[in-house]
Amino acid sequence: CAVAYFTGAVGGLMAPPDHVVKNDKGEELKEGDFEYTRVYGEMVAALADKSIADGQAITLTPFQVKTRNVYLPLTNPLYIAARKMGLIQREAFIWKNDPYKKGEPYADSDTQSQPAVETEVGYMRLGELHVASIPGEIYPELIYGKIEDPAVAGADFPDAPKEKHITAILPGPKMLILGLANDEIGYIIPKRQWDVFAPYAYGRTRTQYGEINSIGPDTAPILMKAIEEAVGEAK
Predict the structure, then answer these.
(1) Three-state SS across the chain?
(2) First and final CA of the chain: distance in angstroms?
(3) Which of 35, 77, 99, 120 could be a cystine partner for 70, CB 3.0 to 4.6 Å?
(4) CA distance 3 to 8
(5) Closest to 139 measured CA to CA, from 47, 10, 7
(6) Which pLDDT band holds residue 13 (cuts at 50, 70, 90)?
(7) pLDDT tens across 99-148, in order?
(8) By the 8 A CB rule, do 206 and 195 touch?
(9) CA dihedral 134, 49, 60, 68 (to 10 degrees)
(10) How far apart, in whole angstroms, are the C-alpha atoms of residue 134 and residue 124?
(11) What is the pTM of this model?
(12) What residues does 42 pair with on adjacent strands?
């Protein structure tokens, strides 16, 4: 039969788990060898089989689709440098301190203005199914609401409000999360977990991987608010 694959909440380095992958003798396997990969793959396949077996038919009509275009301030110095070197070729605009206001085209020679990039979020209602389309690699905390509270020591914005998460935004329990939907803007990280300045969280001696591959700390607040507004328009 036809198969469609969609990437979900892959932000936050959702790597294979430790201490749960075991061989037939009950011996724990370590990530990095073929046997671990084989057994882990079979575990994932077993979950898929169970999901199919437990699946129930739902109504997929009527259709409703809402999208919101937003502009995200680009503060990642690596991305800005890559633009100036010609490694990233993407239209940018001057940031107007408003995620819904399109600025004038941004020139990489401009040293006075803040660049911003345009992207899109979407909400689809397919009958009983509620679908959120997210233009990047979103952290699972923004899906399920498990944002650290209080913020971990060393985080750059410990007092930032917690973003409203997807399961609280979507109006029904039957949901589908589409990551990398229409765009790839990098990692989407809860603002109060953002950590690029010393002292670093979790006893680290350097910044974390996710922040290196994110547009900036305001990405999550803007996107989550835009998704909430798109859902509100559909209602």
Answers:
(1) CCCCCCCCCCCCCCCCCCCCCECCCCCECCCCCHHHHHHHHHHHHHHHHHHHHHCCCCCCCCEEEEEEEEEEECCCHHHHHHHHCCCCCCCCEECCCCCCCCCCECCCCCCCCCEEEEEEEEEEEECCEEEEECCCEECCHHHHCCCCCCCCCCCCCCCCCCCCCHHHHCCCCCEEEECCCCCCCEEECCHHHCCCCCCCHHHCCCCCHHHHCECCCCHHHHHHHHHHHHHHHHC
(2) 34
(3) 99
(4) 16
(5) 10
(6) low
(7) 999 999 999 888 899 999 999 999 999 999 999 999 999 999 999 999 99
(8) no
(9) 0
(10) 12
(11) 0.88
(12) none
For 7-11, 88-92, 102-106, which range has the lowest pLDDT when averaged over its residues? 7-11
**pLDDT at residue 6, as a whole number:** 82
Q: Evaluate whether 162 touches 149 at the Cβ level (below 8 Å).
A: yes
**Sole residue written with tokens 């997929």:** 60
Partner residues linked to 93 by β-bridges: 105, 116
Q: Kindly state the average pLDDT of the residues 166-171.
A: 96
- Tokens in use for 19? 């201490």
- On the question of pLDDT at 208 being above 90, the answer is no
